[in-house]
Amino acid sequence: MSVLNNAIEFKSVFKTYGDNTVVDNLNLSIPEGKITVFVGPSGCGKTTSLRMINRMVEYTSGTILVNGEDNTARPAHELRRSMGYVLQQAGLMPHRTIVDNISTVPRLNGVSARQAKSQALELLNTVGLDESFAKRYPSQLSGGQAQRVGVARALASESSILLMDEPFSAVDPVVRADLQKELLRLQSTLGRTIIFVTHDMDEAILLGDYVAVFARGGRIAQFGTPEEILREPADDFVASFVGRDRGMRRLTFASGADVPIHPLDAQQTPWQQWQLNVEDGRPAGWRIDDRVIPGGSLFVAGGTLRDALDSVLSSPSGWGVVVNEQGQVLGLLKSDDVLEATERERLNRYGVSA
Amino acid sequence: MNWLQSNLQHVGELTALHLLQSIIPVIIGTIIAVPIARFAMGRRRDGRSTERTTSAGKLRRGLVINSAALLYTIPSLALFVLMPLVLGTSITSLLNVYVALTLYVIAMMVRSAVDAFDSVSPVTLEAATAMGYRTTRRFWAVELPLAVPVMIAGLRVALVSNISMVSVGAVIGIQSLGTLFTDGLRRDLPAEIITGIVATVLLALVLDRLLALLGSFLTRWRTA
Ligand SMILES: Nc1ncnc2c1ncn2[C@@H]1O[C@H](COP(=O)(O)OP(=O)(O)OP(=O)(O)O)[C@@H](O)[C@H]1O
Ligand SMILES: [Mg+2]
User: Which Pfam family, any one, appears in the UniProt record (chain B) (predicted)?
Assistant: First the structure.
């Protein structure tokens, strides 16, 4: 872990508003090319800490190094152009078209209009929007689309650092899951240093290579990989913050790959009449006594044990449905098998043999 | 109708004069009012606020808005008569109208420009700063264009009320469509008075429409 270079280092950073100390002696090293998530209860100084990096908030004392250089060494506006920033409400310029919005920072940096535009069109594709969006105005986008444009705009700065402050918290859960997946996909090819603020522990676990748990007063209660934090919370505060659903969350790190997949007719017994409806190879609810009941969550083969358990628990028939990436049915999961797998995971985790 | 036909050229000239006297003050007044309004706002607070509005800022803002309101309460006729004394011009000089009406436009537009700047979302301004805009460029590229919709609304009110106020100048002998009222009254010519009224209303309608068109052109992004 120490072989990683640090993109950003906080050294004894303080921020006070009057008598109110909001960030209290923050020391933190943020590794390069990874996603580091700031998580913690409301008002604990996550946003303040994030905004001190690009000097949207000026700190009271201490030092922040960005790529080894003091972030006060150059003018604030230059520093800001050198890193992307995604806000909670996308914060797009309402009077500019989508391409122009994405081109903002390159244009400020003196890139020609033409070059900035062709780069913007590429980025539009990168974030999964097609080129018909280019000439639209922000008021014509849904929240999720606007947030994608916000990400594209941040990527356009071509900086290695991306600051994201609760970027997905204003969209509905389905869109949020989409955007999260998309971010991970992007990051796997871009490898930027991303600092991501959230107060959703699930989001932190899903996205973070590293998680910094903040306690009130901008104190870091724990810094580590999500798995470390779930396995060994540093103190009672972290334990209670991670607390609820901790057992479920831990299953996120266990693979559901070795849970056996049964054929579709495996669940048919004389006393159980559930039958999986399949249309074009895709699951389409469960049938019982001429009634069709919508199915539960699907387990995509190769997913986590948490997904596997959820597919079983949410299924009306008690059998989880396994699909491939394309959504084609592969087979069924049996709840006993899944529970057995969680048992194996538990023994494994503590290095105990059964 | 006969009256109008034989006086078409005269009415045309008066319309041109009226137009000049109503448009020039609107342009000059707006150019003066917008910086005053922006100054009154002081430093804009960012969305997730780094700075809070200071009490000095509030005081300045209140002072500017209230003086503008006060200015507006001076009767226009009094202002027209007062101008020659202040400016040293002759009582029938066009300059009196220009200066007096410019003052009115300033009084009206300061208020609506303050509202206009207020209407710009702090989140957008904050985003602009975070992208790396410096204050001056942010003003021209982001803040001002976004303030246009509300400003245009104020401008339309100012222009229409200006068109009606220009007529008052006729009482002290300054030529405009208002001259048709004073002259028509004196000579007991209803046709002349009616022509004056109709011409003034038409002028107001046409200019207001043009301004509205300009507004929707400048704010395509809102309705798009
Ligand atoms: N401009 C300001 N003046 C005074 N206090 C402020 C200012 N900005 C933030 N604070 C205070 O600093 C503390 C930390 O705020 P911050 O926004 O960093 O919290 P956060 O962890 O991002 O919370 P949330 O999850 O609600 O976004 C809060 O108590 C807040 O009231
Ligand atoms: Mg916050």
Answer: BPD_transp_1
| Interface ipTM | 0.83
Q: When comparing pLDDT for B200 and A270, which is higher?
A: B200
Domains in chain B: ranges and CATH: 8-218 (1.10.3720.10)
Query: CB-CB: which of A54, A58, A108 is closest to B133?
Result: A108
Using the predicted structure, report yes or no on whether residue A315 has a pLDDT greater than 70.
yes
Strand stretches in chain A, DSSP E: 6-17, 20-31, 35-39, 61-66, 69-70, 84-86, 161-165, 193-198, 210-215, 219-224, 275-279, 282-288, 291-293, 298-300, 319-323, 329-334
Confidence of residue A3 (pLDDT cuts 50, 70, 90): low
CA dihedral B26, B31, B32, B33 (to 10 degrees): 80
Domain coordinates of chain A in residue numbers?
2-83+159-253, 275-349
Pick the CATH number of A2-83+159-253 from 3.30.450.40, 3.40.50.300, 3.40.630.30, 2.60.120.260: 3.40.50.300
For residue A353, what pLDDT is reported? 67
Of B123, B219, B222, the CB nearest to A91: B123
Level-2 CATH architecture, domain A275-349 = Roll (3.10)
Provide the shortest C-alpha distance from residue B122 to chain A (in Å).
Answer: 9
Check CB contact of A107 with chain B, cutoff 8 Å.
no
